[in-house]
Known about the structure:
The protein is α/β, with parallel strands linked by helices. The chain has helices at about 10-25, 45-55, 85-90, 115-125, 165-170, 190-195, 210-215, 250-265, 280-285; strands spanning about 1-5, 35-40, 65-70, 70-75, 105, 135, 160, 185, 200-205, 235-240. α2 links the parallel β2 (about 35-40) and β3 (about 65-70). The relative contact order is 0.17. Residues about 270-290 have low confidence and may be disordered.
Amino acid sequence: xxxxxxxxxxxxSEWAAKYxxxxxxxxxxSADRYFTLGLPTGSTPLGxxxxxxxxxxxxxxSFKYVKTFNMDEYVGLPRDHPExxxxxxxxxxxxxxxxxxxxTHILDGNARDLxxxxxAFEQKITAAGGIELFVGGIGPDGHIAFNEPGSSLVSRTRxxxxxxxxxxxxxxxxxxxxxxxxxxxxxxxxxxxxxxREVMILITGAHKAFALYKAIEEGVNHMWTxxxxxxxxxxxxxxxxxxxxxxxxxxxxxxxxxxxxLTVLLSCRPDARSQSTGRSDAQHEGLQGLNI
Length: 292
């Protein structure tokens, strides 16, 4: 497990985007070998999506051979509703890059049989070879996707009833009208995300500081589902200073020292063996072995 601490939200977003960019480039995706990327919605990843879009428009990154799988979707909300996660992904990311529409996968909250839809989503992930990198965010109560407190830590994609606190928190997106907020969602499970070969979790803001504390300084607990990723062999948490307010000073100091080292490595483009670094192709690709 790694915790990367940046000064603010913008720097955390840029760091995350650079990491994703480098992972895709290192993978060398092709028509016979797609890079599979799990993606979240919400306010936290917006900065990361903006930077990834910039990399694409600058000619630094292509999504032509990338397949994406989103974490969740509301049940009963029309796909073209401005608050559906279909709309969110297309408006904030997909329409700005060169990804093929058929390579984007988002759960259908209006499917005739929701259980069949969830099972089919798991099958699509398996057929794609599994998720190479799953990116996620968390709520203040430590939930990832819609795996709220009490969710099984081995759960799979399923229908989930939302807690009252989540409905109230989401009301701001629906004109503060609780009656308009969906009460059910389709969501990947904790086990679904744990199956990914690598997991990146974005945590920013003081309102998520206690959740970060629960995620990395206390034990695994199904009441804080993000804590499950302590047990994943390759998890990287990316946060800003505000999110560290509940952590021990010793914890922050240790991970800041590690962050400085990782940032130097991350700044080295995997497709450009600069004379200043003298790193070879093998060394660049081997950065993955450092669990960064």
